[in-house]
Amino acid sequence: xxxxxxxxxxxxxxxxxxxxxxxxxxxxxxxxxxxxxxxxxxxxxxxxxxxxxxxxxxxxxxxxxxxxxxxxxxxxxxxxxxxxxxxxxxxxxxxxxxxxxxxxxxxxxxxxxxxxxxxxxxxxxxxxxxxxxxxxxxxxxxxxxxxxxxxxxxxxxxxxxxxxxxxxxxxxxxxxxxxxxxxxxxxxxxxxxxxxxxxxxxxxxxxxxxxxxxxxxxxxxxxxxxxxxxxxxxxxxxxxxxxxxxxxxxxxxxxxxxxxxxxxxxxxxxxxxxxxxxxxxxxxxxxxxxxxxxxxxxxxxxxxxxxxxxxxxxxxxxxxxxxxxxxxxxxxxxxxxxxxxxxxxxxxxxxxxxxxxxxxxxxxxxxxxxxxxxxxxxxxxxxxxxxxxxxxxxxxxxxxxxxxxxxxxxxxxxxxxxxxxxxxxxxxxxxxxxxxxxxxxxxxxxxxxxxxxxxxxxxxxxxxxxxxxxxxxxxxxxxxxxxxxxxxxxxxxxxxxxxxxxxxxxxxxxxxxxxxxxxxxxxxxxxxxxxxxxxxxxxxxxxxxxxxxxxxxxxxxxxxxxxxxxxxxxxxxxxxxxxxxxxxxxxxxxxx
Length: 592
Prior knowledge:
Layout: H1 2-23, E1 28-32, E2 35-39, H2 41-97, H3 100-113, H4 118-131, H5 134-146, H6 151-165, H7 168-181, H8 186-198, H9 202-214, H10 220-237, H11 243-256, H12 261-273, H13 277-290, H14 294-301, H15 309-320, H16 327-339, H17 343-350, H18 359-372, H19 376-388, E3 394-397, E4 400-402, E5 419-421, H20 431-475, H21 479-492, E6 499-500, H22 506-512, E7 546-547, E8 550-551, E9 561-562, H23 572-577, H24 582-589
Parallel strand pairs: 6-9
Antiparallel strand pairs: 1-2, 3-4, 3-5, 7-8
Helix pairs in contact: 2-3, 2-4, 3-4, 4-5, 5-6, 6-7, 7-8, 8-9, 9-10, 10-11, 10-12, 11-12, 12-13, 12-14, 13-14, 14-16, 15-16, 16-17, 16-18, 17-18, 18-19, 18-20, 20-22
């Protein structure tokens, strides 16, 4: 708009000047070598303008003839450069689509037309990477490092090649060089932070972050979050060796990021151990309200070591009230109720979750069945159901499932990469192992209780048997008195009597005595058993009477009274499996 106004002003001035001269033509006379020329002022000005234009045109033609070689050379260079840039563009597009043949042709044309251009080196390196020639790519990147304009690009390429080759030391050194040259470079700062975190140098990682923040490489919110992550990682590393320093760093991390679960859990543990229960509970409850996590529930439950299960249950109720609609609150409350043997409350809490239970809920039900009813069958049923149940959340970063949080990703090295989510495509999460161990412990406790009851029953039965045997032995008559009594009874029955005494040890008889099934009649004295007539009366082991090698008829068999078997007597079961030896059996029955 301004240019148009200026143009109009200029045209108006020219028209005014021409009109002014036309109104005042005047006269001009020129006398030279006898020539006299007379004209008006406007005509003279027009002649002067035409002559000046012709002279200017002649000068331009002359200068063009003089500079023509240079102009031809410049035109050739320009055409060559344009073809080179076209080759570079064609090659970069071919790299994007993965056309190796087109990339090689474009690289050849670019190297011929633009041999010293930075993008030509980049195209050469990318073509070598596609062809699987890392040495060519490294040479191209080194050539880019030598050029100040492409130094950072070359360092980035060398860093990537070193990471591919697994040379962590070289990758770290290159990243350090790039971060020193340009602190705002995100990839360089992240690589240095990853390397220092892997080495446990969290203070050095924070120094890189501070330098990046000073150069305005990241915003303030991102800086606070990353600093909190590094402080939490350092506090966890120092939790066992230097609790005081670890507590300070954990509290600072919570101040920067109150919802960071690892920082809140570490601060809660350390403050609880130091006796600052109220402050620790406030930190844990604030983090749990924003991000319900089982680690926070464990910290809240065991905030004060040595508390009873009912005290832990009370604290978990307070924690669950901060996030009453969350599944993690119900799970934490159910676990604390089971530990406190408040089984009814645990069932009420878990009941809303049974329509679509997760693996942890199934294992909690298995533990509840084992602890409350000692029902191993239902416990195993719930355990089997957990295999097909929904998965529980876990710490994941770049597709890696971990049982614990870490400040950087094990794959990409990205800071603060771990998130608490349900991992896709896995059969179980690491947190499930803890719940499974609780179920195993509950089932083992049931089995131990049953075994203890069986052992107590056996001990009671053994003591009862020993007591009865002692009473039986105390009630037995002395050997001198028992023989005449038994003989008198046998004589009254019309048969000779042999009394066999079995003074067996109490412990041996008690071990061989069968288990009592109910109340037994009191045995005051041994029951006589009619076995066979003695050998002196001519009777064999089968009860048939013999005399002079012939069976004797019409004579009554003599009775033999025998006491319980001796300790070395295998009993009737052994006799049923082996062919008895008459002589040995006679000796055994007679007490010899």
